Amino acid sequence: MAFVRAGSYRELSEKGSDLIRLEGKQIVLFDGPKGVFACNNRCPHEGYPLKEGNLTDGCILTCNWHNWKFDLESGETLVGGDKLRRYPVRIDGDEIWLDLTEPPRAERVASAEANLREAVDEHEYDRIARELSRLTLAGADPLEALRKVILWQHDRFEFGTTHAIAASPDWLAIRRTLAERDSGAGVDAATLVPLVETIGHFSWDALREPRFPFAEGVEPYEEAAFLAAIEAEDEDRAVRLLRGALTAGLGFADLEPAFARAALAHYANFGHSAIYVLKTGELIAALGPEVAEPLLLALTRSLIYASREDLLPEFRHYADVLSRWGDAGTREARASDFVGLTVVQALERTLESGGAPLQAYQALLGANALNLLSFKLSLQGRTEGSISNNVSWLDFTHGVTFSNAVRHLCDRVPELWPQGLLQMACFAGRNARYIDRDFDMEPWQVSDPVAFVCHNVENLLDHGQFEYIVACHQVKLTLAIQDELAAGPEPEVGQALVAGLNRFLNSPLKRRHSLRTARQALAFVASE
User: What is the 3-state secondary structure (H, E, C) of 442-510?
Assistant: First the structure.
């Protein structure tokens, strides 16, 4: 301990409280029936000066701004979240001495991790940021905090993988880019934001959810058995087989082909399944093998529960075209060839070009980009119509992010190109019903696409979106387009992608549909 003189006890006893400054810290002293206490003058909630607070019962300090209460004797926070920093006090005659020594690093890290878990359980966004700051300033690896959050939360996602997992690797990629660019600059807000957003999203998706335990037990892994269990929606067996694979030392690279086959076996979950496979792999690569089991358990569960849109009447032609893929042609295709086609037409047109998968991919990627660019905004604002025609910007961003996932998964598992391309065609055909064929695209064109996307990647740090679901779509779309530009698309495809991003970022996104929901509810109930 290293005590420093903090003032006169006689003077403090006359005042009852006193504010002092020592070694760059603002410290408030209180003299009460239970002794002299010293603590940080700033309330850990929002920084209100605790010198202006009230001391009751000899040691209970109340911040009068938001009524947080701290027991200065025990150190407990009675109302509120964060712990209040206290300083040991020694009285020597008339002199007050304080120990300003920082607690040992291990103690500070353990305390911040325990407090972070409390903040995550309650989704206290600001407190998550503060506890991450404490971890970082204590010299801990903040990525370790994210690893622990994944372990805490993964079995509280009732239906498996959520957008919290899908957006995480993109946030971490932004963080890496900023850290490399600003190497040596130290800890700053720009590298903190991606972690706060990622952990905040995990917290939100699991908020007040119980645990949904995964099956125990291990079964020797066989890919065919694993795929059959997923197809049969047999979660327990799929989980046992997955545990068998991990016990045998298989990593994500070994298992990715099976997960990709399961994700693309159907036009599943409106494309989410393929995106989740890609992003789970990227997150494991970013955080290490210690998060592989919880993330792959969640991914397996999400595949079990995934909806299978190719079984819907609108997409049933998909199976027929896939069965005829051996006759796929190599007719040259452009993005404009798909604009306005129905699902059936888009599937047949893809069959004509699928024998040249990379060229067909460019055309379909461009088609989904053009759909994004020309989405008829008035449709998301309508208050009448069937539930099946409820559409918004997010339906269109998925066409691009799904396409990006298809390219990566099919590059690594080429046998899946038929499924990937035809499911891209399902996106293009379905969304074509909601575009403005006469839309003027020129105002949204960008002269320097790469610079534009880089600028908007950095803008994500202050995206201003209240809902995580909106923010993560913005992140995933922006990073997917950046990735596609880096892959060298055909010029018109790259231009359409960036113009679509430009319009999406600068056009309204309606999320609450009160009148439409009420009308659709009345119509549905009346028909029962």
Answer: HHHCCCCHHHHHHHHHHHHHHCCCCCHHHHHHHHHHHHHHHHHHHCCCCHHHHHHHHHHHHHHHCCCCC
Contact 113, 148 (CB under 8 A): yes
CA-wise closest residue to 298 among 153, 151, 154: 154
Bridge partners for 98 per DSSP: 4, 89
Which residues of the chain register pLDDT less than 50? none
pLDDT at 179: 86
Determine phi and psi for 434, rounding to 5 degrees.
-120, 25
Instruction: Look at residues 238, 214, 203 and name the one whose alpha carbon lies nearest to residue 155.
Output: 214
pLDDT of residue 185: 53
What pLDDT is recorded for position 41?
97
> Please, what is the Cα angle at 251 between 477 and 240, to 5 degrees?
100
Judge whether 48 and 9 are in contact, CB under 8 Å: no
**Helices marked H in 32-137 — which ranges?**
105-122, 125-137
- 87 bridge partner residues: 38
- Strands (DSSP E) contained in 63-219 are 69-71, 77-79, 86-87, 89-92, 95-99
Residue 319 CA to residue 419 CA, distance in Å, equals 9
| pLDDT of res. 81 | 87
Q: Is the dihedral of CA 225, 230, 234, 237 positive or negative?
A: positive
Phi, then psi, of 90 in degrees rounded to 5: -135, 130
Tell me, what's the pLDDT at 527? Answer: 87
Q: In what order do the strands lie in the sheet with 95-99?
A: 3-8, 95-99, 89-92
Name the helix (H) or strand (E) containing 192: helix 189-205
Find the farthest-apart pair of alpha carbons in the chain and give their distance in angstroms, rounded: 97
pLDDT, residue 403, reads 98
The DSSP line for 220-277 is ---HHHHHHHHHTT-HHHHHHHHHHHHHTT--HHHHHHHHHHHHHTTTBGGGHHHHHH
CA 403 to chain centre: 19
